[in-house]
Design a protein that fits this description.
The protein is an alpha+beta fold. The chain is built from 8 helices and 8 strands. The chain folds into 2 domains: 163 residues, YacF-like (Orthogonal Bundle); 74 residues, YacF-like, CATH 2.60.440. Strands 1-4-8-2 form a 4-stranded antiparallel beta sheet. Strands 3, 5, 6 and 7 form a 4-stranded antiparallel beta sheet that branches. α1 crosses α8. The two termini are 23 Å apart.
Length: 251
């Protein structure tokens, strides 16, 4: 099954983008080639760009505190393991404290690093990191893989509290929903959302053998999904077939 996720608000949209970038960064840092490490640095700069809003830190901290309050309310429930609950709340406390001790906005610790900031200013220019533009960076790419990896790990270390907190929040959000099997009749599903509930994320799973791509539109009142088929010229055309898929609404 292919999984698609659609955020209902800008905050969750930012979390999803950052999670994808952190995942890519971790994979690239673990490789040995200089080209992989080049794109690891580009990904690092993308993370700084996406996470550069000054209010993002307070939003993540508020979400961690909100989740702690939600799970604290389960204390005394005989259906809930107190040991597991204590462990989860302790983990939320740890993530809160770790992020709260990070100074400034995401990536601020790197803004005084001349080598990285010179590279960041050039990567937006097509071909702007050639050896005649950035000889110091060209030399760094010729360091042995272990040396480059150590540098990368040192540079990304301040981002770890952010990555761990966002990973935990998204995991808890995804687990809050229950999956249902639905049908897009004649290729389209339109569903009204219940009043009084504030959904944050839609998750959709579809069989790849169907060869279809969902086009999703959501707001707090309505979900609209159209199933599209890609033509040989790349154009997407709405299908009129009945299409089964799984959908999860997460609050």
């Amino acid at each position: 099954m292919i999984l698609y996720e659609y955020p209902f608000n800008e905050r969750i949209r930012t979390y999803l983008r950052l999670q994808q970038l952190f995942s890519r960064l971790g994979e690239l840092v673990g490789r040995d080639q200089a080209l992989d490490h080049h794109f690891a640095l580009i990904t690092l700069f993308e993370i700084m760009e996406v996470g550069g809003r000054s209010e993002l830190k307070s939003e993540v901290l508020k979400d961690l505190e909100r989740q702690k309050q939600v799970y604290s309310a389960y204390r005394g429930n005989p259906a809930i393991s107190e040991k597991a609950l204590d462990g989860l709340i302790a983990q939320l406390d740890h993530l809160f404290e770790a992020l709260n001790h990070v100074a400034g906005k995401m990536g601020q610790s790197l803004t005084d690093h001349d080598f990285l900031m010179a590279l960041r200013s050039r990567v937006a220019i097509p071909g702007g990191t050639c050896e005649f533009d950035l000889p110091a960076y060209h030399a760094w790419q010729h360091h042995d893989a272990s040396s480059r990896t150590r540098d990368l790990q040192q540079w990304i270390l301040p981002f770890a509290p952010w990555a761990q907190a966002i990973e935990q929040l998204l995991q808890m959000l995804r687990e809050s929903g229950s999956s249902q099997k639905v049908m897009a009749t004649s290729g389209q599903l339109q569903q009204n959302l219940p009043q009084g509930r504030s959904f944050q994320l839609l998750r959709l799973k579809i069989d790849p053998s169907l060869g279809l791509t969902p086009e999703i539109s959501c707001n707090r009142l309505l979900v609209v999904i159209r199933m599209m088929r890609q033509q040989s010229d790349g154009k997407l055309v709405a299908t009129t077939d009945d299409v089964p898929f799984e959908m999860t609404l997460c609050a």
